[in-house]
Amino acid sequence: MIRIRSDLPLDRDQLNRFLPWLIAFMVFLSVLAVAGMLVLHATASKWDRGVRGTMTVQIVPSNDNYRDEARLNDVLTILATSPEILRYDVLDNNELVRLLEPWIGAVAGSGELPLPKLIDVELRSTAMLSADALGERLTERVGGVSIDDHRVWLDRLVRLIETFEALAFLVLLFIILATVGTIIFTTRTGLAVHREAIEVLHLIGAHDLYIARQFARRALGLGLAGGIVGLFLAVPTIWALAHLAQTLDDRLLPNIQFGVLHWVIMAALPIVVSVVAMLTAKVTVMRSLERML
Fold this sequence. Notes:
Blueprint: H1 14-51, E1 54-59, H2 65-80, E2 85-90, H3 93-104, E3 117-123, H4 131-139, E4 145-148, H5 151-193, H6 195-203, H7 208-246, H8 260-292
Antiparallel strand pairs: 1-3, 1-4, 2-3
């Protein structure tokens, strides 16, 4: 791995040989957790951008087809004369059947089920038209019309994603705590093993801070070595997961592409872990030496 010169024979410690691999595993999980949080955030942003400024107008069917066509024309006239609306598209029955078949089966296209008329409406970016306001405007002239701005299910999905993001953050926090605990254990074990050498250093005038720096530098080197290994293991894993996501339906899943900032954040994790290991070892040694004296 990485060898750091020390006045204490820390290289001979058996536990230090396994510490880099433990840290590599911790960094591997940390990178995956951070990548998961970034993907979840991108998914929520994509859904929000896709739904914001859009509405769906539903015209409930009646027993009179001619009356339904007249109601549809009235609704289209109102939408065409509304300055807040950028575009609107009427979904044909074939597309509506395709959307309903996964939920209700073949009965959707049997002709026995009365299908409503759906109109996909997109508002202008500067428009301040709410679903209630558009609904009042339509119901003044046309009956049996409902407006859906998709906010109900979108808010639920966003809350679900935020829950998963919180869980990923907790996983990351637990990983950091486990890393700190591992460093504390190995550092205290090293102090016990090298107790006689530490006493000799004290006799020749070495201060506690000097001894703590020996352990801190060692922890920094081991943490950085393990962190780099964990990062190199995590990168192909993320690439494989991103490739797998591309084979799925991209209407729900975003195109998983990390920007420069995202890669910088993930690449900085080994450095962060190594610094945490260094500070943990230093604080542990200082407190342990105070009790030894």
